[in-house]
């Protein structure tokens, strides 16, 4: 398989230079290198610029409602564990409208991969503040500067029992590809929050902004990914320096492993017959 | 024996935590096993301890699905029950009360012509092993009064308490007997409510929630998601309990939004999915309802109504969500709405809805309500003989191989385009919340938009051709027509049976099981051939009446509406039918 196998006939509608391109290239290559066939991928997208990408990647696609990609993906994976289920959502979608789903999906640890396209604002709706926008930022909806504190997806995931918590950068597609491969192979819920510069609306968090600040955790001496407190500490660094890479990983069983009824073939691959309910009726007689 | 009756109404009251419901359920089961038909009705506030809880049981020799306002026996475990419910007793009735906890003036009893039977239940129950057994002791007392033996009761008590251990079982059986013996020794004469005997039968005692769940289970359900909300929660509880036995994934998700989307994800990959809630939760699912419509993904959505708006009356009953179900979600898209009239219909709809959803690729809403959802009724045991699973148009991998370019939303004459499931080679498509072209790609063209909207609607036209029409009971040629939907079936038909033949012959009664698509032609045929029409609904603004007017232009002026959170009692309906 090659990258082109994941292309569709639909022409990408993103702005030239948009950070979304890097994420898609990394994702396609990760799937190619993992030898996952397009028909075995379910790509669940949120609504936003990033979500429009569902049209440009050949796989089974689900373009969900704004904020609702995660629960859809969880349901799909529980019903068909043979699929590689990948969710991609914007930061507005995933951490605004979909924040509750995010926390609960992390807690539940269903075996899916969650890629957030974190451009620190709402792009498709032309540039309003998002939950990951820096405090004080002036946007169309916050002309006086954003009052709220910025949400931190990494610490939120860590404190909710995240079993794979990572941050990528669309400006480092090779690193991102490797990170996504690990995330997809991880047997549980994996979060990869990806810095995705929006060249049209975000004049602060640009590619250069991140090139100047990012340091790679994977290369940091002495850093191990099994120490949640160390992960926390790195995740709190924000300013002149910002960490990316894999913060934390553990091997706790995924949600389905706790359900005896999911042993054996995937739920949807079992023959569907009229069930005999004789035994069940006994309690009512 | 002249004083043997066809039916009797028994009621027990006390605080939440007294075991009112569990005692009532055991009482119901005792009569079911003895061959009687029963229907029960609970009233309880939305709190866990305290408050005033009642359980009312109608026992009959004929099938029953409703209750009387008037009762024959009242068991009062506290003073408050006497204050609240004494006036409901029929002349000649009996008040059994815990004389350690409550009292009543002899003059009051005499005036109402009620027999008072004070039993020191607290003292006697403590002696038998614990005050909590007052409820079971009162069952023994009631059985003695009605002239039933303890044989079946002993068995039921044993079954009910066996998981709590030997001691609990023995003590409760002792409590039953103490109550029974007390009445035998102290109540002289024969009570008017001796029941005619019945042969044993093959009935079960079940609620519409459990019946609906069982129907779906029989029909191949394999994914159920919900967030607890009275009065829908017992579907979740029941399915969760049997999930691993039956191979169903049952998910209590973080909110109803998640519930709806999870189920949709499961359905998209090929599961038979259902979700359940009450009106408040459905409000949160509304957003997803439109997505179901646009992506043409099968989904069964159950709304067990309670009185709204907002939190409303959480534990009471109403039929206030019909117009909401008709209109929920933005935009135009097809949906099917069906409403069971009782547990038997709930069972049927449980499996039928799954078929309709798959065959027509759209949302199917089952609209039930608290009265039947939580009310136990005796009905013949379900079988699965007539159940068939129809998954609609899903292509196989072989079929797909022969298709050059698969289009999920291909514009086809019947509107039902064949589906593929993720995992099938060459079956790619996007299930898109944006309007889309036949492949599923986002598309905002004018012509495409019109074609897709029309295609989706043709599915409903297809369904409308085959769906069953409203049911007509009574004299089909009568010119007086009673119109209703949903759980009022029980009280209307039970009342009808008890009317004099002279009145009965002049009535026909029409029940809507399918509310959307609306059977307009049938409705016009019946209503235009009626001299008088009476509409009966458990809501304040005649929601079916409005629907009929909208679809046929026929305005029904004569309406019997009730919206105090209580169901219609037989007395309400009998007088309405007599005066009609
Ligand atoms: C329920 C709902 N509310 C609002 C919108 C409008 N809307 C579309 S995209 C979007 C924000 C997108 O921001 P983000 O998720 O960060 O994605 P981006 O466009 O930045 O990739 C909003 C508010 C919608 N589609 N649905
Ligand atoms: S607006 Fe921003 S996020 Fe959207 S496509 Fe353009 S650059 Fe990308």
UniProtKB/TrEMBL annotation, chain A:
SUPFAM superfamilies: Thiamin diphosphate-binding fold (THDP-binding). It holds the Pfam family TPP_enzyme_C. GO terms for biological process: cellular respiration. Its cofactor is Mg(2+); [4Fe-4S] cluster; thiamine diphosphate. GO terms for molecular function: iron-sulfur cluster binding; metal ion binding; oxidoreductase activity, acting on the aldehyde or oxo group of donors, iron-sulfur protein as acceptor; thiamine pyrophosphate binding. Residues 55-194 form the Thiamine pyrophosphate enzyme TPP-binding domain. Keywords: Iron, Iron-sulfur, Magnesium, Metal-binding, Oxidoreductase, Thiamine pyrophosphate. Residues 198-262 form the Pyruvate ferredoxin oxidoreductase beta subunit C-terminal domain. NCBIfam families: PorB_KorB. This is 2-oxoacid ferredoxin oxidoreductase.
TrEMBL record, chain B:
Keywords: Oxidoreductase. Residues 215-454 form the Pyruvate flavodoxin/ferredoxin oxidoreductase pyrimidine binding domain. Residues 17-180 form the Pyruvate/ketoisovalerate oxidoreductase catalytic domain. It comes from the Bacteria. GO terms for biological process: response to oxidative stress. Pfam families: POR (PF01558), POR_N (PF01855). The keyword Transferase does not apply. The keyword Manganese does not apply. One of its GO terms (molecular function) is oxidoreductase activity, acting on the aldehyde or oxo group of donors. PANTHER family: 2-OXOGLUTARATE OXIDOREDUCTASE SUBUNIT KORA, PYRUVATE-FLAVODOXIN OXIDOREDUCTASE-RELATED. This is 2-oxoacid:ferredoxin oxidoreductase subunit alpha. It comes from Candidatus Komeilibacteria bacterium RIFOXYC1_FULL_37_11. The lineage of its organism: Bacteria, Candidatus Komeiliibacteriota.
């Amino acid at each position: 398989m090659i990258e082109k196998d994941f292309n569709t006939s639909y022409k990408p509608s993103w702005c030239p230079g948009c950070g979304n391109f890097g994420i898609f290239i990394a994702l396609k290559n990760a799937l190619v290198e993992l030898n996952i066939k397009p028909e075995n991928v379910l790509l669940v997208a949120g609504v936003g610029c990033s979500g429009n990408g569902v049209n440009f990647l050949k796989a089974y696609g689900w373009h969900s409602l704004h904020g609702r990609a995660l629960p859809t993906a969880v349901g799909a994976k529980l019903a068909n564990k043979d699929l590689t289920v990948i969710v991609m959502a914007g930061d507005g979608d995933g951490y605004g409208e979909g924040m509750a789903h995010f926390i609960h999906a992390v807690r539940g640890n269903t075996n899916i991969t969650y890629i957030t396209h974190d451009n620190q604002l709402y792009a498709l709706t032309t540039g309003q503040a998002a939950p990951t926008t820096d405090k004080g930022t002036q946007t169309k909806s916050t002309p006086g500067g954003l009052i709220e504190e910025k949400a931190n997806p990494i610490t939120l995931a860590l404190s909710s029992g995240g079993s794979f918590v990572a941050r990528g950068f669309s400006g480092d597609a090779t690193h991102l590809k490797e990170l996504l491969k690990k995330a997809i192979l991880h047997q549980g819920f994996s979060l990869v929050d990806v810095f995705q510069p929006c060249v049209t609306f975000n004049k602060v968090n640009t590619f250069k902004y991140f090139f100047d600040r990012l340091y790679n955790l994977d290369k940091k001496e002495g850093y191990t990914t099994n120490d949640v407190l160390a992960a926390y500490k790195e995740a709190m660094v924000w300013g002149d320096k910002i960490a990316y890479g894999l913060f934390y990983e553990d091997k706790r069983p995924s949600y389905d492993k706790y359900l005896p009824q999911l042993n054996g073939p995937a739920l949807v691959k079992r023959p569907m017959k009229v069930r005999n309910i004789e035994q069940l009726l006994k309690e009512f007689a | 024996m002249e004083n043997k009756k066809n039916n009797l109404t028994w009621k027990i009251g006390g605080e939440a935590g007294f075991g009112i419901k569990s005692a009532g359920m055991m009482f119901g089961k005792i009569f079911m096993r003895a061959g009687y038909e029963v229907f029960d009705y609970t009233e309880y506030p939305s709190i866990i301890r305290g408050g005033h809880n009642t359980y009312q049981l109608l026992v009959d020799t004929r099938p029953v699905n409703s209750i009387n306002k008037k009762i024959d026996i009242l068991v009062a475990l506290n003073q408050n029950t006497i204050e609240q419910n004494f006036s409901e007793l029929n002349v000649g009735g009996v008040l059994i009360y815990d004389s350690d906890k409550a009292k009543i003036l002899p003059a009051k009893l005499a005036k109402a012509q009620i027999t008072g039977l004070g039993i020191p239940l607290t003292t006697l129950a403590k002696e038998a092993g614990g005050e909590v057994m007052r409820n079971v002791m009162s069952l023994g007392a009631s059985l003695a009064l009605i002239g039933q033996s303890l044989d079946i009761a002993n068995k039921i008590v044993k079954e009910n308490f066996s998981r709590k251990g030997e001691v609990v079982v023995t003590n409760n059986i002792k409590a039953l007997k103490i109550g029974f013996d007390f009445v035998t020794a102290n109540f002289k004469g024969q009570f008017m409510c001796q029941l005619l005997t019945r042969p044993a039968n093959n009935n079960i005692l079940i609620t519409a929630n459990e019946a609906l769940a069982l129907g779906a289970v029989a029909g191949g359900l394999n994914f159920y998601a919900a967030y607890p909300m009275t009065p829908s929660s017992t579907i979740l509880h029941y399915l969760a309990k049997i999930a691993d036995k039956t191979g169903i994934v049952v998910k209590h998700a973080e909110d109803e939004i998640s519930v709806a989307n999870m189920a949709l994800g499961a359905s998209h990959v090929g599961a038979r999915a259902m979700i359940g809630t009450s009106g408040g939760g459905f409000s949160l699912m509304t957003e997803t309802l439109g997505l179901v419509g646009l992506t043409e993904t099968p989904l069964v959505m159950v709304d067990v109504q309670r009185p709204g708006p907002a939190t409303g009356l959480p534990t009471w009953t109403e039929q206030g969500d019909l117009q909401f179900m008709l209109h929920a979600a933005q935009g135009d898209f097809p949906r099917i709405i069906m409403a069971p009239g009782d547990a038997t219909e709930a069972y049927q709809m449980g499996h039928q809805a799954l078929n309709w959803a798959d065959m027509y690729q759209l949302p199917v809403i089952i609209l039930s309500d608290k009265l039947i959802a939580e009310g136990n009724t005796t009905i013949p045991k379900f079988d699965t003989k007539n159940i068939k699973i129809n998954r609609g148009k899903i292509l196989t991998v072989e079929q797909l191989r022969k298709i050059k370019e698969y289009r999920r939303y291909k514009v086809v004459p019947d509107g039902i385009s064949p589906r593929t499931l993720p995992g099938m080679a060459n079956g790619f498509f996007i299930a898109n919340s944006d309007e889309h072209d036949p492949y599923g790609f986002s598309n905002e063209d004018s012509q495409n938009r019109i074609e897709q909207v029309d295609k989706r609607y043709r599915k409903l036209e297809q369904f409308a051709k085959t769906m069953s029409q409203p049911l007509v009971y009574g004299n089909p040629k009568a010119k007086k027509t009673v119109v209703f939907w949903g759980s009022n079936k029980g009280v209307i038909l039970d009342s009808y049976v008890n009317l004099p033949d002279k009145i009965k012959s002049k009535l026909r009664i029409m029940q809507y099981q399918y509310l959307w698509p609306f059977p307009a032609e049938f409705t016009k045929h019946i209503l235009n051939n009626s001299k008088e029409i009476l509409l009966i609904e458990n809501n304040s603004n005649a929601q079916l009446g409005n629907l009929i007017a909208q679809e046929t232009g026929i305005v029904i002026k004569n309406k019997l509406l009730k919206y105090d959170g209580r169901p219609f009692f037989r007395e309400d309906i009998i007088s309405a039918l007599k005066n009609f």
